[in-house]
Amino acid sequence: MLKGVTHKARVVLCGTRMDAPGLGDDEFVDRAVRGTMPDLAQLTIEADKILVF
After folding, report:
1. Residue 16 and residue 42: Cα distance in Å, rounded?
2. What is the pLDDT of residues 1-53, one digit of tens each?
3. How far apart are CA 44 and CA 28, in angstroms?
4. Based on the structure, what is the number of domains in the chain?
5. Is the pTM of this model over 0.70?
6. Which domain holds residue 34?
7. Can you list the positions of beta strands (E) in the chain?
């Protein structure tokens, strides 16, 4: 897995999708943060580009 986030990328993870398989915050790249549905909705509204997979 990647060691950290480069450039000015902001990585916000869906907490619901993290909880489903039991993933913890320590299993992701540095600087990635758990987000809530309202957080993700607001970020989507404000974003110039969105990456979803």
Report:
1. 16
2. 445 556 677 788 888 888 888 888 788 777 788 999 999 889 889 888 777 76
3. 21
4. 1
5. no
6. 12-46
7. 12-14, 33-35
Q: The dihedral of CA 17, 41, 53, 48: what is its sign?
A: negative
DSSP state of 30: B
| Inside any domain, residue 5 | no
- Record the tokens describing residue 45, joined without a space: 């509204």
pLDDT of 6: 60
Flag whether 20 is in a domain.
yes
In a domain, 25, yes or no: yes
Query: Which amino acid, residue 32?
Result: A
Question: Tokens 């619901």 identify what position?
Answer: 16
